[in-house]
Write a structure and sequence with these properties.
This protein is mainly α and 322 residues long. The chain contains 14 helices and no strands.
Amino acid sequence: MKQYIIRRLLLSVVILFGVSIIIYALVRSMPGDFVESMTAGNPKVTPEMITRLKRLYGLNVGIIEGYFKWVVQAIQGNFGDSFVYQKPVTEVISSKMWVSFSLAATAFFFELMIAIPLGIVSATKQYSKLDYAVTTFALAGISLPSFFFAAVLQRVFAIELKIFPLSGMVNARMDYEGFKLILDMAHHFTLPILVFVVTGIGGLMRYSRTNMLEVLNADYIRTARAKGLSEHKVIYRHAFRNTLIPIVTMVGGSLPGLFSGAIITEGIFAIDGLGRTAFQALNMGDIPFIMGFNMFLAVLTLAGTLLSDILYAVVDPRIRLS
């Protein structure tokens, strides 16, 4: 296990370098840059001013030279200052990611708690009315655009019924602290979390159902039933454990999404999370933030993949890491 993890970590370093090269080349190849975005439409800006600004922000050098300057600083832990927010990139990410994490992690928890049991029940009652109902609900969630569903929830629960706030993270008119602040944030986050759960539950439910159906048709399940084991033991002690490996894969792959935020949902509900922040930075050509944000996601992706591989051996003792 120890040697496997060390090898994977060393390989991850090489992958991160490759990812950083591709991302930097793509960002610098985008039409326009931060200086052009900042000075667009201002008749008082002269070409000399634009040249000085590009020199100030390091945009006057080529892609190769610019990348090497960036990577030397990044190796030292310095990802530069965000052009838009005028703060260190690491500070901006750390201040925004926990908002996105609290939303996504809560929603993901409810997705797991709802989707997996529904997938199991749907598989054990294949072609029944319950199976059709669950499958229809899953397909509706998959097909439902998040922006449309969010707008419907806002119209019904915020504007007409006035049960939940229309947008924002806290009530600006109140000065809450401690537990009251947490309750107020939970009140504001209810509709965004509902959007995450309903639109995300379908894929996980169908994934659980498909894998459970495959396991239930295996020979060892027939043998377990032939030995006289109860249906509950056959399903939840023997079959369910073997469906955990694909689910573990999805859980590990979901790690980046827990921190990266959702651009559309955060934008509609005016939540100051990492997804909304990254979208604004991308529109402005904020190269330091875009690079720092994408490298952050790359690290989380590699960590999630490694975590999944390790959990395989925990879920199924027959698997050995090598």
